[in-house]
């Protein structure tokens, strides 16, 4: 009987401690790690951003049909397996699937090298570090912006229009 109130109190303390664990010393929610400082808020110039966007569109124009081909070939292979075809009959489709995947990988590599040439070695490294620090945010950000490229500013408008960090 006496254990029930103690259990409830411990559960409330646990919930409260988890809620406060995500707060900073001012009582505000902590920002995601990888918050960019003032000098890194705007990695790319407008010209570089435009060129990277063009390169991305060109890559996607090539990649979308290849990705569709991969999906179609995988469905066809599954159907062949279900229909009881032999491994010898399926291997030609598998070879075609692997060739399409290899072409897609080559196009991706070419695109990455092109972007590195546009932005330079140092900025490319910073871009890659930002992606690694925020892996889950990339997909969510693309969904929210309709697939548009990131504008180089920090998340949630951490930079003013002039590229300097906001005073908090």
Describe the structure.
The chain has 168 residues and is an all-alpha fold. The chain has a domain at 51-144. The chain contains 5 helices and no strands. It has helices at residues 3-21, 46-82, 87-119, 121-133, 135-145. Helix 2 (46-82) packs antiparallel against helix 3 and helix 3 (87-119) crosses helix 4. Residues 32-41 and 153-158 have low confidence and may be disordered.
Short description:
This protein has five helices and no strands. With 168 residues, the protein is mainly α.
Helix-strand sequence: HHHHH
Low-confidence stretches: 32-41, 153-158
Helical fraction equals: 55-70%
Silhouette? flat
Tally of alpha and pi helices: 5
Give the N-to-C terminal Cα separation: 50 Å
List keywords for this structure.
single chain, 168 residues, mainly alpha, 5 helices, 67% helix, 0% strand, flat
Write the layout of secondary structure elements.
Layout: H1 3-21, H2 46-82, H3 87-119, H4 121-133, H5 135-145
Helix pairs in contact: 2-3, 3-4
């Amino acid at each position: 009987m006496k254990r029930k109130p103690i259990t409830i109190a411990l559960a409330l303390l646990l919930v409260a401690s988890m809620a406060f664990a995500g707060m900073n010393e001012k009582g505000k929610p902590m920002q995601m790690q990888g918050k960019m400082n003032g000098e890194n808020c705007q990695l790319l110039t407008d010209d570089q951003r435009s060129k990277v966007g063009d390169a991305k569109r060109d890559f996607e124009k090539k990649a979308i049909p290849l990705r569709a081909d991969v999906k179609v070939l995988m469905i066809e292979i599954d159907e062949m397996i279900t229909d009881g075809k032999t491994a010898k009959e399926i291997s030609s489709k598998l070879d075609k699937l692997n060739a399409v995947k290899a072409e897609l990988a080559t196009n991706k590599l070419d695109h990455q090298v092109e972007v590195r040439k546009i932005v330079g070695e140092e900025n490319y490294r910073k871009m890659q570090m930002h992606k690694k620090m925020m892996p889950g945010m990339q997909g969510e950000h693309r969904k929210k912006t309709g697939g548009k490229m990131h504008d180089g500013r920090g998340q949630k408008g951490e930079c003013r229009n002039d590229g300097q960090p906001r005073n908090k």
